[in-house]
Amino acid sequence: MVDELNISTLTAGPIISLHPLVKADFNFWAFSAINDELLSCFSRARIVIWPQVFPSQFYFYACQMGLHSFPNYEARFKFPGKSGQMLLFKSLGLPYPETIFFPKLAALGEHPDAISVNFPPFPFVLKTDDEHEGQGVFLVKDEKTWQTALSHIKKREREGHFGFLIQEFLQAPYDLRVVVIGKEFLPFWRALGPDFKTNLAQGGKPISCPEKPLETQALSLTHELCQKTGINLAAIDFLIHSQKGTVLNEINYVFGRRLLGNSFNELFFKAVKDFLRSLEK
Q1: By CB count within 10 A, which of 106, 131, 147, 242 is most buried?
Q2: Across the chain, what does the average pLDDT equal?
Q3: What are the Cα distances from residue 226, in Å, to 55, 153, 231?
């Protein structure tokens, strides 16, 4: 396994890296203080390499300065959270489960200008807007589980976290994740864990491909999504719809690597080098 990539000698630069394993002409920790020294390096650079977690202000500043970025996180920051992804998929005309977004619990109450909402029948899925790895996701089967989910939403609102989605429940024994690393699209199937979740952190299990046509459809949708958005590093989750086949569920820009084994760094470094070659002077 390759542990570090040195790109400081390439002719595409100057390059600034906030990624701890990518060494460039200028190197900084992603959560460094933003001062004139750091900004002067941004102003001298042509390209920036990002880690998966960093302050979004850096990204917008780099865009304003005209820097080339890898990974491309434009869609990530323009359409944040699960609600943003819902709107992104809708705007691109891509298949997605029937979903309603509530910016806050008050949207369930009475307001003279509020839109009336028709809830799907039980069971349906409730998801908080910003939790990950299967956290904040509830299968609402009846009034009791509805109240449990609402209690979680109320608790999060007290902590300053707002927004949740209600989504039709698509029952299937497995789902599909496609990991995008540069130009590589890597499909992985996951069987349900003890509850209805397939996240490995929640007890889901990797399985071999059960239906090749569904995998082909998901790869085609991934290609279309990436072509329209520029996404080049993400894990894209698909659900199985009885009539539509595979439908988009979520984009994970920060994702677990257990399905990839030890290959992530090698694939990521190759994607970085391919990106830089495309920009060589």
Answers
A1: 131
A2: 93
A3: 23, 32, 5
How far, in Å, CA of 48 to CA of 60, rounded? Answer: 12
Q: Where are the domains of the chain?
A: 5-73+265-277, 98-168, 171-264
Q: Which of 29-33, 117-121, 158-162 has the lowest mean pLDDT?
A: 117-121
Q: Is the pLDDT of residue 261 over 80?
A: yes
Q: Where are the alpha helices (DSSP H) in the chain?
A: 36-44, 56-64, 74-78, 81-92, 143-158, 212-229, 264-277
The arrangement of secondary structure in 98-168, i.e. its CATH architecture, is: 2-Layer Sandwich (3.30)
Pick the CATH number of 171-264 from 3.90.1200.10, 3.30.470.20, 2.60.40.10, 3.10.560.10: 3.30.470.20
Say how many C-beta atoms besides its own lie within 10 A of residue 258's C-beta. 11
pLDDT in tens, 211-234: 999 999 999 999 999 999 999 999
List the structure tokens of 276.
Answer: 């830089």
